[in-house]
DNA sequence: AATGTAGTCAACCGCAGGCAT
DNA sequence: CATGCCTGCGGTTGACTACAT
């Protein structure tokens, strides 16, 4: 496996190797990261004896060599998450990728390009997207209304944390609402403290989110539908007595690996009407 | 069976922001 | 405070593969 992969045109520019990585290079990089950890990519080439730029090393590691990467095709769940997050964040692939454990921004970007950019399942996608945006609008209006009511009444002296604790209805925390079409509406308030803490590092990115299209709004709360999905999943699992709730982890990947081309799966995925039961638990997971 | 086309994946490039000096 | 370097991100490109004609 030593260097048969030519064809990227340039093999070496200014002393830097370019093009496909060899297994030898991969080994060197893996070994280096194992010993020194991630980061300091520019020094990797020297320390590891790689004729690769820091950028190239980082890219290779992040997109291909990282041990926590989930190989295999994007599952329908992940796909729906991608669509929702893209509706929220646009082409912020890295942000979207953070909500999909084991997936890279590059992977998601490629996936989006090939599947949605050319409008393959456009009707479903657009419908779901439109529905999602509409739901978000309604939800935000509702939230705003609640905030106004609260500020007007002034009786809830608990401060700004109050709404998070209460979630606008107490029992709603950790669940999904169901709108008049039966679709799952993820409530901002379901964001658990742990999730907030986990997201705190990137809060500054997400606080001033600009919605796509006509839905321009500022997010007062940290928006992470995947986190919400996790919680929905968890809630569903709890309701079923399942206990642990793994989200789009490897199990999901395994489960859907064989059926993701199935049109029926697509249909059921986007027709969320049958997905959320009366208790608000999401049956997808 | 050969050829053309679309899909997928891996990698590169340029830019911007953050951080150290 | 200014500058330079490093890192990360998004866009783009090229090669390979699968499928259709």
TrEMBL record:
The keyword Transcription regulation belongs to this UniProt entry's keyword annotation: yes
Recorded GO MF terms: DNA-binding transcription factor activity; sequence-specific DNA binding
Any single GO CC term annotated in Swiss-Prot or TrEMBL for this entry: nucleus
Name used for this protein in its record: Uncharacterized protein
Location (main, coarse): nucleus
Originating species: Paspalum notatum var. saurae
Pfam families according to UniProt: Myb_DNA-binding
Keywords tagged on the record: DNA-binding, Nucleus, Repeat, Transcription, Transcription regulation
């Amino acid at each position: 496996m030593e260097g048969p992969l030519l064809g990227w045109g340039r093999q070496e520019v200014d002393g830097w190797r370019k093009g496909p990585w060899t297994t030898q290079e991969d080994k060197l990089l893996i070994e280096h990261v194992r010993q020194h950890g991630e980061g300091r990519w520019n020094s990797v080439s020297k320390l590891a004896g790689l004729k690769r730029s820091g950028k190239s090393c980082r890219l290779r590691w992040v997109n291909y060599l990282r041990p926590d990467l989930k190989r295999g095709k994007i599952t329908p769940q992940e796909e729906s998450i991608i669509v929702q997050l893209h509706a929220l964040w646009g082409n912020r692939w890295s942000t979207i990728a953070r909500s999909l454990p084991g997936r890279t921004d590059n992977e998601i970007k490629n996936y989006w390009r090939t599947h949605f950019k050319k409008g393959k399942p456009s009707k479903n996608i657009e419908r779901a997207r439109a529905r999602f945006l509409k739901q978000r609008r309604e939800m935000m209006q509702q939230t705003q209304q609640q905030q106004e009511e609260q500020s007007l009444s002034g009786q809830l002296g608990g401060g700004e944390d109050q709404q998070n604790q209460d979630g606008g209805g107490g029992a709603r925390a950790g669940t999904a609402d169901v709108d008049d079409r039966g679709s799952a509406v993820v409530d901002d308030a379901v964001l658990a403290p742990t999730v907030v803490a986990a997201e705190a590092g990137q809060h500054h990115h997400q606080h001033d989110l600009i919605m796509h299209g006509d839905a321009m709004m500022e997010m007062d709360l940290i928006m992470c539908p995947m986190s919400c999905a996790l919680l929905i999943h968890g809630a569903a699992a709890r309701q079923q007595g399942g206990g642990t709730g793994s989200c789009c982890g490897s199990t999901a990947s395994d489960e859907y690996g064989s059926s993701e081309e199935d049109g029926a799966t697509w249909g059921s995925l986007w027709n969320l009407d049958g997905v959320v039961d009366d208790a608000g638990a999401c049956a997808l997971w």
